[in-house]
Amino acid sequence: MLITAEIGWGSGLQAAERGPELLLEAGLADALQANVTRINAIPSMLDGALGGAALETAIMDHARRVSDAVLDAIQNGMFPVIIGGDHTSALGFHTGLARAHGKTGIIWVDTHPDLNTPETSPSGNIHGMPLAGLLGRGSEKMLETTAPCRISEEHVAMVGTRSIDEGEQKWLDEGIIHCMTMDVVKERGLSACLASAVNTANQAEAGYGLSIDIDAIDPSQAPFVATPVDGGLDVDELAQVLKDLPRKDRLLGMEVVEFTPRKNADAVVACDLIASLVAAI
């Protein structure tokens, strides 16, 4: 089941909201032979600007609707695949997994840890905060949304991080979250790192969810993201490693997010890229 999280409020980019729709038009559902549930942004960014409490409310309301869709898919025997949209989708995705299964782990394949809070974020953009919220740090509205989650830091593994803000680094320096930066990936190999990530996340009682922000991929292959950073993963290698991922029987769902098209033609390339990652699972 594809669940399109059609939101850009978290990154402040209207293109992120439109990205999932363009992927569907490019044939993503057909390529994966999947049913689709669409979760539109309410209000849409086309309707005008939001700020402050109204902005956060819109994001959290959207996350709750994504969570409901994930729970419904699982209760109907389907494997949920979230297609974003900005990475605030993770709030709904992992909360939905928790509601369905209980205590889960997370594999976080992303250039960024997304461990900021309103106090530490340089930009204030909420798409840089979802993992913090899932782990119990953030605004009151964020924590109300993530209340069903019972994710422990020791069950979180990051792969491919290479852009870490000061506040996020302080958190990582606490030494509980298993963070494998791109330097570690280059040293140990992607296959070994993802196997290590599975070992960490799979210690959770129910299993684990997989979050992939496509900005983890090198911008030479995936330039259509909100915050590209050079020196990323190779998409073909990532797809191959995902095919061979250990303990797939414990994988509860996945998300592939942050497609932020610069032009409509980007959707054709992104569709093939994202389909290769989802099909690998």
Largest sheet: 8 strands, parallel
Number of helices: 11
Whole-number count of domains:
1
CATH fold name:
Arginase, Chain A
Cα(first) to Cα(last) distance is 13 Å
Query: What is the rounded Rg?
Result: 17 Å
- The best one-word shape is globular
**Number of DSSP-assigned strands:** 8
> Which whole number gives the mean pLDDT?
97
Structural classification: alpha/beta
Strand content: 5-15%
How do the helices and strands follow one another from N- to C-terminus? EHHEHEHEHHEHEHHEHEH
Write the layout of secondary structure elements.
Blueprint: E1 2-6, H1 14-25, H2 28-32, E2 36-40, H3 52-75, E3 81-84, H4 89-101, E4 105-109, H5 130-134, H6 140-145, E5 156-161, H7 166-172, E6 178-181, H8 182-188, H9 190-201, E7 208-213, H10 235-243, E8 251-257, H11 266-280
Parallel strand pairs: 1-2, 1-3, 3-8, 4-5, 4-7, 5-6, 7-8
Concise overview:
This protein is an alpha/beta fold and 281 residues long. It is built from 11 helices and 8 strands. The radius of gyration is 17 Å and the shape is globular.
